[in-house]
Amino acid sequence: MRVGIVGGGITGLALLHELVGRGLDPILFERDTRPGGIIRTRRLDGSLFEVGPQRTRLVPSVRRLVEDLGLGRRVVTAREGARLHIWTRGRLRAVPDRLSGLLTSALLTPAGRLRMLVEPLSGALRSSESVADYFTRKAGAEAYRTLFGPLISATFGSDPARMPARHSLPMILRPLGVERSLVRAAGRWKGGNAPACTFADGMSELVDALAHRHGGRIQLGQEVTGLERVGSKLLVRLAAGGEEVDHVVLATPASASAPLIASLGEDAEAAAALVGGLRYNEVTIVSLQADPPQRGFGFQSAFDAPWRTRGVTWAGWLFDRGPVCTAYLGGGLDPEIATWADEAVAATAVQEFEEIHGTSAAALDVARATLPSFDDSWDPLDDLVVPEKITIAANYVGRLGISARIAQAEAVAEGLASRVA
Fold first, then answer.
1. Out of 18-22, 47-51, 414-418, which region has the weakest mean confidence (pLDDT)?
2. How far apart are CA 329 and CA 367, in angstroms?
3. pTM for this structure?
4. Residue 302 needs a FRET pair 20 to 30 A away by CA distance; which of 83, 170, 222, 242 works?
5. Helix residue ranges, H only, 277-325
6. CB neighbours (10 Å) of residue 159?
7. Which pLDDT belongs to residue 173?
8. Least confident residue range of 145-154, 188-197, 380-389
9. Alpha carbon 70 to chain centroid distance?
10. CA-to-CA distance for 394 and 409, rounded, in angstroms?
11. How far from 131 is each of 85, 126, 380, CA to CA, in Å?
């Protein structure tokens, strides 16, 4: 089977690797001149920092890929005992390492902890409620605005009040075994967490290794302009020429996937309209040269905190890289930031970092990233019928995060290989 993959981010690259390993014949098209998508590591003034995802986790799918690529000795795991913090009630407070710890932690006030006691009595997820409604009903308003809301917003870059729970929460709750009670599921959880990790030369080392391994199958600087049915095959149209394949996998954002689906003709217009209607939020990422006295993963701002900064990753300490941190602003909670000039966002990030941490900072880089909002524009996807010989493998139909993207690549490759077997 000749498979055309559109999109050279981590999903497309991992899928390319998995298809080759299963004996298929894939080729990947990426319009950028570099592979990796939003994964990008930079060096500036002696500092190594990420302008995209900061880390992944060594879950089985990631570990298998790392071993296949011979990167085992390049893995750098996070320092043991690192805790996430929340800025609330005037200072940074550590998040307990187990959810049941909220019942005794100073993260919540006595009233908030008392409200958490009745969480096991609350019901299961309701398909009609928002993410904000779910966590407020389950754990109380204080726990939502202090912990659950900031964590969900940080994961999706979105506003939990505008996210129907049925689109996003099952992908988080199901792996944790949550049926009715969050606290009881946490008490039963035996799986533990795979360690957070990066690589000696940053996250780009992973995508660079994939690109090097399969360079002969990757066409960079090649924008796919459309798809066309040619007998039993599909023609992947390029600016100059094209490539006939048996199947196409779209590993691109919705805005890029929709016109390619539409190019297949009238019978694909409905699917293209559904995909094209998905909304995204823009998150602004400010890389900082700073060495905060606090230690851990970083912090998120409670919803009632006075900051435009939604959170900061203490990546330098976490992976022993020196004075480097990453601040996140904007997203669905603060869409106005998307209209600000880079200089204004950087100035805000620096000022608030210094106020929160009590130490100096300087901006190294400003980057923008878009994330699926998983809001009500996802409702029509229940009716999505993907055209024949097309598979969508993108974060808007799956989970976010590098480990989830690699796992989806494995699943798609297995499904395509089973059609040949």
1. 47-51
2. 11
3. 0.92
4. 170
5. 315-318
6. 22
7. 79
8. 188-197
9. 25
10. 9
11. 21, 10, 18
